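Hi,

I'm pasting everything inline rather than attaching a file, because the server keeps stripping attachments. The sequence lines come first, and each chain or strand is labelled.
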Amino acid sequence: MSGYLTGVLVTLCFNIIAAYAVYLPMAAGQLNLGIAGFMAIGAYAAAFLTNEMGWSIWPAVAVGSASSCIIGLVIGIPVLRTHGIYLAMATFALGQVIAAVFLNLEVVGGAAGYPVASYAAPAVIFMATAGVMLFVMLLSTTRFALYLTSVKSDSTVSDLMGISVRSIQAAAFAIGAAIAGFGGALYGHSYNFIEAQHFNVMLSVFPVLFVLFGGTQTVFGPLVGAMFFTLAPELLRASAEWRYAIFAFFIIVFMAVRPQGLITTSLFAAFRKRPNGGKV
Amino acid sequence: MSALVITNLSKSFAGVQAIADLSFEAPKGLATALIGPNGAGKTTVFNLVTGVYPVDAGTILANGIDVTRMRSRLRIGTGVARSFQNIRLMAHLSVLDNLLVGQHIRANRLADLLTPYRLIPGHRWKRDALEALDQCGLADFAHSAVSALPYGVRKRVDLVRATLAGASVLLLDEPAAGLNPTETNALRDDLKALKAKGVTLVIVEHDMHFVDSICEHVVVLNFGQKIAEGTLAQVQKSKAVRDAYLGTEEEA
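And the predicted assembly:
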């Protein structure tokens, strides 16, 4: 495999992980615009453990992910009292504050960045991404995933059915933060360098676009969205500077034709065959 | 013995008295109709019983348990479930998925939450939901998206979802509204089957023929107050009820 192709696939992997980190809270109706902050927590925590404490990569990645999860849970419970645009603004500010903290944290290099000694090869990133996809797909077969949709569709009815709406939302937020932290931890060890400036606004916004484009109704939406946003610009490279215009045109057309996202439950239903007459 | 006991219930919204000192009981295993003109406060009573709105004054006992200050999501655990006047199913979920949401109170442990039931053929949750649908003749719609269903079917699915919580008291808000005669008859059969199982029904309904065919007990509200109570024949004789529905001679 060429270095270029490997590079593109590794980027795709990180985009897929980021998309699933955004997808889970979004499936419950929460727009998390602070995903870069949680990636930063995972990246810096894991890098610190491998650099300073001599840990091997996987335990460090696990702790980085768990750190993001715990901070996501602790911060998420009060933040999730807000809704709609206020929640988006709160999570946006949260991501910026976390990045600013690392920018001024000298123990991990501050503004100069933080070199990471241990290396995660592309094969490791591919396997880890497959693991994240498997995890989210497995989660999508549970009541938890069903309740995410239920809470998003009608929180009042969900509550009257006995579902703890805030617990489901907080859990989705925290699991999303854990996935972001996992991705951030692997990112640091894949590129062997992290700096707070990388965990910027665009890193939070793009995964939201992946999910909105792919659709939140099924677990495959974020995957398709991340693939489109990562691969389409590469496939359009031959068209030189026009590729950005063509790419933007595709996005506008797709969003106009399918505002609910490319992959929806009705699309699945249309292709689903039920030879057993609808039996479970 | 009453399944639902409402005592001196009051609720106001921004100074407007929606429910005023309301008391009535729903006898266990029977069907009680809550009737009255539009704006009488019938749906508000359901919203107070299920905790959508907090109560200003009074008490609500469900199966002997005081639910007046209980969190709304815990009330279904006392055996009270409801359907909605404007159907509130999850539109882009399938009928089966909507019913699985309705089962939550019977599958609310952490292990239940994380069981990959979709991967398990014939899982008991899916089987139970399909059986409930089958009993109402709706099994063919199990995998249809709710948004694609006719109004009458959605209305009946809403009822099936309410029953899947295993509730002993069902609050049904205008279950027959918008149904054609065939669908109304099917609904009547569904409700009679529930009564036969010992489920207590409290029904808000404007169709008096439907009320007459189902309900043994009728409570009439007007401007948030109870103006009559008894059998349908008894309340129909009440001057207060006739005035509420038809207006007084002075108004005429």
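The first helix of chain B runs from residue 42 to 50.

If the labels don't parse on your end, tell me and I'll reformat.
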